Queue: 4 jobs
Job 1
Amino acid sequence: MSNQRQRALNVVQNRTTDRVIAPSDKISDFFAKDVFNLDKMRSALAPDTFKKVQSAIDKGRKIDMETANQIASAVKTWATSKGITHYTHWFQPLTGSTAEKHDSFFDAQKGVEILKGSALIQQEPDASSFPNGGIRSTFEARGYTAWDPSSPIFIWGRTLCIPTIFVSYTGEALDYKAPLLKAVEAVDKAATKVCQMFDRNVNRVSASLGVEQEYFVVDRALYNARPDLVMAGRTVFGHHPARGQQLDDHYFGSIPSRVYNYMKDFEIECLKLGIPVSTRHNEVAPSQFEVAPLFEDINVATDHNSLMMDIMDRVAERHSLKVLFHEKPFAGLNGSGKHNNWSLITSTGINVFQPSSSARENLQFLTFLVNTVKAIHDNAGLLRASIATAGNDHRLGANEAPPAIMSVFLGSQLTSVLNELESNGNLKVDKGDNMYMKLGIDKIPEIILDNTDRNRTSPFAFTGNKFEFRAVGSDQNVAEPMTVLNLIMAKQLKEFHAAVTKLSSKGEDKKIAIVNVLRDYIKSSKAVRFEGDGYSQDWADEAAKRGLPNIKDSVRALNAYVSKESKEVFEEFHVMSGLELDARHEIKLENYIMKIQIEARLISELGMTQVVPAALKYQNKLMDNAKGLAEFGLDNSHVKSVLEKVNKHVGIIQSQILAMNVERGDVNLIEETQDKAQAYCDRIKTKYFDKIRESVDKLEVTLDDEDWPLLKYREMLFLR
């Protein structure tokens, strides 16, 4: 056994775990203790100043410098009272992670701790050092971070963190947060207009989000002994263990004590930061788990998910563990996703996706339900692009995650309601008729949550009072798919309002106009509704007949961002300009290229420096054995057959790696990013990765265990 593998296994055998104790038996005693939330603001600020903050949060109004100075002073006083000496603008650049630059409160010239309002509101990080898609040249460094008052300031570690957006010197968004805020504002305006058709008291509609985060946990020593996990986040080689997930005994099973203490530890840190984590459990695959917070405002929920991932990663170090967020760290086992539970809440407290005992509210419910289906149908390509990453390509459609085909699951009961509404045709409603009753709208049950089964194979499923976008990758910033979802919903609701208004202006009763428009939408979007097994080939064949896109790789999927139609909708609602979309497209393609490059180099390095030498060493053993048997006149054909098998796979590995490296050199000469990314997808990943892996994995189960250099799946997944 290789020294590195043996050392790692020895370390794990001697691990111990320490019990984690919460600061209090009552979560309420320490929840949000490290957050400068509205309650703390109310106590620390003058009433007029606090009103201005609330107005900035609720209505998006600017905060003047005098108010900013007062807020900054209060924040600094609160932070320094907790022993904090530094602050940072905390933002989410297009690297996929968070970023921060720490500055001291201490002003050496004045000899006191100061936080100016100007420093609270704006800072200037180097915009050329972050992905910008060509918006900024390397010699043009200036960019700005700007405070987002709608997301609470918090303390993480020993630093005060101020959530911000990140833009270039010329104003283009260089982060995930800025477009999300604009998309949320767009859906608010469009949804409010539609809600006012039913209730004039509605003056705002807020998007809500709950993110279920899936992840793997492995021992840090085992992680460090696998270069592919360290460098790429996934194993490029590894044979399936004899026992994986086939017994279905891990899901909701007893949580291993060491992992339990890790979970408890990071949950405590999350709760201190106001992240309302509520659920933890084993997921389907061995060493796979899930954590889920409660629903929050979508902007805050998005920030909290990014922060939670950072917390989980840092806390894992305390427990000598490593958390893996890659969508497919282990081939042949369930991948990891983020299930984004999305809904829209009115200022009057109504969830528009909640069926009701009120016929009027049920018509509103059907309005938003049907418009959502229509939005997914009309913008399936753009929605697919929003979840396109190199990591998620390994997961989508891999028999444990939704397919790359965008479809909507509603359940049998709602499907029958829509079918009835569609089939009524040109229903005549006389003055004495109850329209709701005649259409069956008043018969929709108030509680629909348990009236239909859930469909885990659907990428976009209605689950009782919300939609669950299940296709989002576990390592993604959820702002990106949520930006697209809210944007296409804003577009759809705007079109719906215009269509109803047009009919009403011609004298048609408003309720009848709403129903007639919905009936048209039900017919035109019917193709995207699917109730069956999304994993089946039958569905792929059926989807093709329906004209639904099935784009399996990210490179092709990402083209939807720069289509004429996409640019028009992004620009119409001022979410992003064509220039910003072109830049994002470029960044995502470059990211894809770099990830496939890294994986190709790992395959080459591990294959030639660890796998092949181990196989050759084993071949020598076999040859000595064959010679020994022959000397005694014994049959050595069985040894020769193993020798031939090993030799065959060594030959495949060497020849395929050599060919891949030559072709990779040619691909690297391609200058145009789109063509280069496509070449890396088709000519490198698709052409070589699986072929090389198949031979490596065959050798893993052929060689003597003592001779195999790489940690095996059974060791990484079951030793914890």
Note: The chain has three domains: 30-175, 184-576, 590-718.
Job 2
Amino acid sequence: MILISALLCASLAAMAQVRVTTPETEMVLKADAGSDLKVLYYGARLSDADVAGLEAAGAAWVDAYPAYGFHCAGEASIGVTHADGNMSTVLKVDTVSQSQENGAQITRIRLKDTVYPFYVTVCYKAYQDVDMIETWTEIENLGKKAVTLTRFDSGHLPVRVGDVWISHLHGTWAAEGRLTQEPLERGMMVIKNKDGARNAHTDHSEVMFSLDGKPQENAGRVIGAALCYSGNYELRIDTRDTDYHEFFAGINPDNSAYILESKEVFKTPELAFTYSDEGLSGASRNFHRWGRKYKLAHGDKERKILLNSWEGVYFDINEPGMDQMMADIAYMGGELFVMDDGWFGEKYQRLTDNSSLGDWKVDRKKLPNGIGWLVERAEAHGIKFGIWIEPEMTNTTSELFEKHPEWVIKAPERDLVLGRGGTQLVLDLSNPEVQDFIFSIVDDLMTENPDIDYIKWDANMPISNHGSQYLDKKKQSHLYIEYHRGFAKVCERIRAKYPDLTIQACASGGGRANWGVLPWFDEFWVSDNTDALQRVYMQWGTSYFFPAIAMASHISATPNHTVFRTTSLKYRIDVAMSGRLGMEIQPKNMTDEEKDLCRKAIAEYKQIRPVVQFGDIYRLVSPYDGHNMASMMYVDPEKTEAVFYWWKTETFYDDHLPRVKMAGLDPAKSYKVHELNRIDNVPLPYEGKSFSGKFLMENGLEIPLKHKVDYHKQDDWSSRVLYLIAE
């Protein structure tokens, strides 16, 4: 066996095993020089002796990055049409290097085609303080002529056939992040997106594989995978006549053939893998720790409690109204006010959703004193100010479109395809002039108003026709890829100049809940649907891959503006407090009693905010399991504080709900219990009392099914939030 030291790059002799390791997990590869690159193992970290005996024990021995052209019956990670028309590619190990970079182990395995000057470097980044391995490829054409890439996956992983289940997310607008769990069967399973601009409304580019039968939250072996990409993706699980489910993930190649010029390198997005033997929640904890530390913008900073104007006033923006809302959120203890859509437009006033996108100048009829006055008023109220933009879009009714009709995505010789409001269009981010313009939107706002603290970045339309007025006619198939390259360039410029700015990824709700976007964004809007009951389901699914600190969760009015359900304010508060707490409401329509309840809740959320936003998640009872309830908790890393959530999801007479056992506590510690957001006339019997972590995890606490309130305040909504502090 050849030991590959740091910073070494050399051609390998035969029989080379490559170990890619994190603190608790490991991937073992076979990288014999001149041979196929093979995956031998992925799972819990192995001893040196076990690695040495791995092949004898029955290793996977599956191609790590299979190329199309030979053994065509199986799926391939890469497809290439070479300059001479040859559609076959044969990749063999050329060199291997390993190095340490910023606390991570970087492994680079260069593969070379046996005939053509065509190379693929398979890369692995293994974090040394979190259990996550990222993989991607760098595809290089050193020939004199261009080649065409017809497939370009980020990675491939074999999963041993057995009682394997997959957990994945699906949905639609206002119903994002819904959880599906199903056994893997023979055949092909494909999860993909072709929205063009957003990619998380419907399916998600993240999955979990439960290796020990039906998924369990806190037990069993689990592999989690997340493609870190903002554009169209495709995940495939191919189960044929072999012993392995073969998992492939990468950019969706549909209508995206890529012409790779001579000397050009094509880098695929990262595909992140994790492994846990502590069930689905264990895999989630790995994703959350990695995401907060390495992916999410400002993942180490507490998020502010905000009021967003949208559901409170919609397009009815005016100075007195904004000032009143700022005063109200300040009174309730909030820290930030965000003015949503409707503040801009000179020639065309933004009165509804059918005009003015692209004309990012203040509507002086609505705001005669401009943005600066609002920023000053926010400061006077003791809070920060934020603002909404939708920079990637325009309307046919706009000055921008009148000046630059060539900037929109449009198929040649075809009519425009219009979106929201019957006038919306997507700008072509493959065009550097468009990139400059979009950067200028943020730059101008921040230059004129440097104290703006927060930007809500929306995107309300997919790419609905295929055509770039900028790209060469021979490279029209590059549109989807170049759009997101342009998007990345803009975001990188913004972050370079405004590193401290908080930016939310809103895309008609949760359309950009993905790890490809979040390095430039601090959080995402889970859904335009703020109904508390449906949010229990959506936020439950979303928590599989994303931490609470990234999940904007707001208290809104009832009847809810999307589903028209009426829920209690207490219930809405308790659900919102399980994510990044905010409000989506017109406070002047609230009673003093409601404002005081929210004021109390905000004060109590500030107490638990570090635990919720930086703690470890333990999902306890799923709303999808038919128990008419849901329960979860967050525990700080030191296991000194915990927050326990319990929500009733349905009410039937003669209900008998399961008693919930807690998780993640220190069995040897004693925890004092305090209920937050209490509305009951009398405290819970265990209020202020202490219990061992062992007792709470083995027995739990009895949760009353109803609140003990005055008769005229009774309803069918029941929820509890318990704060546990170790003594």
Note: Residues 1-14 have pLDDT under 50 and may be disordered.
Job 3
Amino acid sequence: MTRRDIINDPMIGNKAEAYEAFDDIPTNPNLERTIGDVINARYGRRNVLQGMLGVTATTTLFGTSALIAPSQAQAAAQDSRYAFDELTWGNDENHHVADGYDAQVLLRWGDPITADAPEFDVMNQTAAAQLKQFGYNNDYVGFVPLNDDGSRGLLCVNHEYTNEEVMFPGLGRQDNVEFSGMTPELIDIEMAAHGGSVVEIAKDASGAWQVVRDGKMNRRITPLDTAMILDGPAAGHKRLQTNDDPTGTKVIGTLNNCAGGMTPWGTWLMAEENFHGYYWTNNLDADGKPVIDPASSEAASQKRYGVPGMWYAWGQQYDRFNIDKEPHAPNKFGWVVEVDPMDSTSTPIKHTALGRFRHEGAETTVSSDGRLVVYMGDDNRFDYQYKYVSGGKVSDDRAANSNLLSDGTLYVARFDEDGTVAWLPLIHGEGPLTVENGFNDQGDVMIDTRIAADLLGATPMDRPEDAQPRGDGTAYIMLTNNTKRGEDDLNPANPRAKSSFGHIIEIKEDGGNHAATAGTWSILVKCGDPSLTEVGAQWNPETSENGWFGSPDNCAIDADGRLWVSTDQGGSWNKTGKSDGLYAVETEGDARGTSKLFYRCPVGGEMCGPYFTEDGETLFVAVQHPGTDGTKNFAGFERDSTFEDPATRWPDFDPAMPPRPAVVVITKQGGGKIAV
């Protein structure tokens, strides 16, 4: 499909669904050896075509429970480490949590977060007000305790993007009308609603979490006005120099912040994902597709990264988002940003040593030898899984620890058919990363991380989303879907052409050391409905009809080492019939590969977060874009949501208020650890 086809498709009801359609077009030309090919070689194509696996592969997926009689497996499943009664699946206008738990809406788009912020007035929005109010489409959630018992702390929340059709009255979707309704004022509001929020919260006398509106560390971080600096090997590079910053070391703002992470020393990592979508050009062909000048020094890079996407009209107002005027400007985005939430005056830092790509997540851990390790996915079909390992060790010196994100080695993963994973270093001068191949220095390698990974022979994956390390040297990789997988790629992990459901890979690093350059991999689950043979899903046989899911996205490891997975089905939730939600997934013993539904979103909403406090007694989740995705398939509604007519008005259910993205805090009734 062309760009014009996508934006004019009557089945695409909102901007988020258009994003998904654009992302369905891979930019990676290096598709000779996908993860499907590797898995096929490891487990055998014959087994796939027979709809079965051998003993070795089956036990790798599910442990011994998959090989014993159902009655025995039932006994094994009863040993689940997750102690809660499973929620019933469904899809309706409200959110739901398992019995015995409270799910309190804590922060909504537009809520004031500073002492001088005005109350939210949805009919009279301004950028000045939005800069003091909670942003839109909350995704990653992190928490920094401010006291010993953890009853006060700072919530750190990413705001990924905006849906103007349900955000502004009388506007409607803008990408399919050439942004004719986007005034300079509305553009600034959109920009002010992006970025992130730091908000102090505290428990009241009853033990309920509340926003501390006058918290001294409360702040908004936005692409409209927040000054940032770049450090690491690409800082000052000529390809980062722009008219407004000839030094190549400064940039205004961060955008499309999807998942993220918290460092061991309490700083917040904001991952910049689909930055390409914000860039504009006036050079279009007859199909509305951007024309990239082949003579441009950035042509190959822009093509590989999908720049310009033209999802927003910002480039009509600001030269820094127009590649015709600032061809280097996109190179200042696609990084991981470090923010010190404890200092509201601090300048965020974009760490170029962590590479430039569509970052989904930046989850951290400390290796067995004391180094910082960051796992990151490149959220695009047929792109790669990465990790970063610092040169130095984590210490008690908070200021020195920040340097660990500037001086280390970035690796990309190659998954081999013998069940091993090799982490390939992206270092200038090593292997093909040479001047002859277009890399003049390490800055070039980091700016064009994707191209460097192509040359190293990394394994193209099925859209790597979040990746979560556990302290024992294990990491879980969420692969959400790949609708471009062909018939020739059928295999035990992805036995579906045009897969909509994804899978989860488990990595065991050598020696239990997250800094290791090699390890082993296996498949935890293949997602989708296990009752449909044609889907080819694979779960522990004791997973109920409520427990299976599609499109794993964000994930978390709680204090007890247990895996929790949230889903993002986009506009395709009708393929499962289920809303997006949060699932408890067993990774150990006979129950391995069993999943239980704990929380589900209102219709059209995406499940984000999740994040547990250190004591395991509070769980933060984020509901993004409620009432938008796939609402034509919502029985009784069957049309696209708009500001005036949304599929749900969650969480306020006020006829004068549209749906509002919100952070939800979940606690156990009567207190205690969640799912224990």
Note: DSSP finds 14 helices and 31 strands in the chain.
Job 4
Amino acid sequence: MNKRIISGVVLAFLSILPTMAQWGRPVDYFAGPGLKDAYKDYFTIGVAVNKNNISDPTQIEIIKKQFNSVTAENAWKPGEIHPKEGVWNFALADSIANFCRANGIKMRGHCLCWHSQFADWMFTDKKGKPVKKEVFYERLRDHIHTVVNRYKDVVYAWDVVNEAMADDGRPFEFVNGKMVKASPYRQSRHFKLCGDEFIAKAFEFAREADPTGVLIYNDYSCVDNGKRERIYDMVKKMKEAGVPIDGIGMQGHYNIYFPDEEQLEKAINRFKEIVNIIHITELDLRTNTESGGQLMFARGEAKPQAGYIGTLQEDQYARLFKIFRKHADVIKNVTFWNLSDKDSWLGVNNHPLPIDENFKAKRSLQIIRDFDAAADKRVPKDDWVPNPWNQPGQEYPQVNSEGFARFRVEAPDAKSVIVTLGLGGRGGTVLRKNKDGVWEGTTEGPMDPGFHYYHLIIDGGVVNDPGTGNYFGSCRWESGIEIPAPDQDFYAWRKDIPHGNIQQVDFWSESTGKMQTCNVYLPDGYGKLVKGKNGKLTQERYPVLYLQHGWGENETSWPVQGKAGIIMDNLIADGKIKPFIVVMAYGLTNDFKFGTIGKFEAKEFEKLLIDELIPVIDKKFLTKADKWNRAMAGLSMGGMETKLITLRRPEVFGYWGLLSGGTYMPEEIKDPKCVKYIFVGCGDKENPDGINKSVEALKAAGFNAEGLVSENTAHEFLTWRRCLEKMAQSLFK
């Protein structure tokens, strides 16, 4: 079955019976190649690790499969590895290095000089008094040489200096009681003692120790306009002075809202002017609005996050990696900061990583890994037109000839807007706010042709798109969009032909204890007097097709989304069928609960249909009231109802049809003479093999059977429109 999810629910539940047992099973997003293999032609994929990560077999296997670069999270920081003069804590640092050596994984050395977690003893003498910068430099050189020489065999790049630049938000500062322009540098002990010379010295010492290693300046908030320029100016100044800075490390401490593609790309392009190596060194995506060095820890027991938050995170990861791939000429490494949410410095309830607290891959890992390289460069064709289901006068949503959909929503105070229609299993298309405060976005790629339900999720709230009409699906009134199809003209209303009409019929159901509703298509000419066999004028009587909707839908679905009346009118006008009546009733499907598929028997609807509805239709309309002039067919769950009822009550219906609703096999039919015609069909993205095998087996057993596999469609209304078009031409013959 194609498990196409529209609006967070199953559009028409299940398509093929043998696969129903698989519905709802957890998905292993680790299945498939590792991230390092997916990105082998782009850049290395790294992870920051701690002692536990390299001690647990489960975590070790994840590291080995997914990553080809490792960073020690804390073990190599100066304060950890060199806490006192002459005292070195190599044990943990060595264990991580040895793990990498044993498994053929290269390392990023993090970090040699940082204002935090630093060996602060370097600044004072034995009496605790400040030392001169020359003494500090001597100690710093010894530290850098010792660390680099010990690990350079396994290290390919060093974060030499970390976070030396000031954050945004302080254009001025007080010096000696006077307000002056703020320094671009962080006012650390390093800077206060040495000015920016300490940066140059650290890089010089690192190059002395490792002539071939890649030397990186690393910092956060690199996409902030002010800090970006301060980093740019510093690195440019240093390189012009001969300081061996090879590249810039852009810490990726972002969130689900920030940065956007323009902000990120602006920073990358700016740094490309002065370096040809960029590392994304500390990637995680918070589910709050903080970024960079801001800290709002979310510790404690892991709590589930809202589904739309996960969608925002998946989309942000997808956007970021698309930009990273675009700039693979300069981006040489992307490193996730920690292995899982359990380890994250941000706390488990910020849910920042593609691997959760139980070391299970999230869908975001799959999205990062299974990218479409061709789609990265694809630009939708600029032939946009309003969706044909739009409200009068509404320009958006729009569709183009390639099948892309484009949306525009006014929600100026919103933090997020998601259209639950999209590709890649992300839960929809995430819109972005433009400069005018309007949310805009386009599907990642072409959609399947035909009709689709969707709605908007605005800051977690479910609303319909005011630009388009509402259609009953997913057990509620949903927005609708029509993606152009090559055969769409056949399903369009034609002004040059006669048209039938659709009537709403309300009837009392004793079995349900309430009024029920159906829609009845009556062909053009219904009720007119015609000459009978005896030459007398009489009213023509018609065969009847009972046509059922799927789960989440109702009696309005076939007439509106399915265009059943238009299909009938066009077939009759083209001389492809003789007129017949179509009855489209509510199938009592929507109280059905997921997880109880094995108990579904359609007994309630069987009683309503056969004991109540058919007598009403035969009494109210000019029908031929016998089984050889009566057919039943249904889509998805309506197909399940059709199969169950026709097999149990073959005396009622002489023609049977399943549209993405399973198949018939000869051994299921007790009397081959009980049915004149069987139709089975589905989309080619569903179970085409099952359809073909069913038709083959039925024909071999002597049944009049026919099938259709709809091209380029899944579990959706274009599939079922095509099925109805073909099936109708073989009914009542």
Note: Residues 307-326 form the longest helix (20 residues).
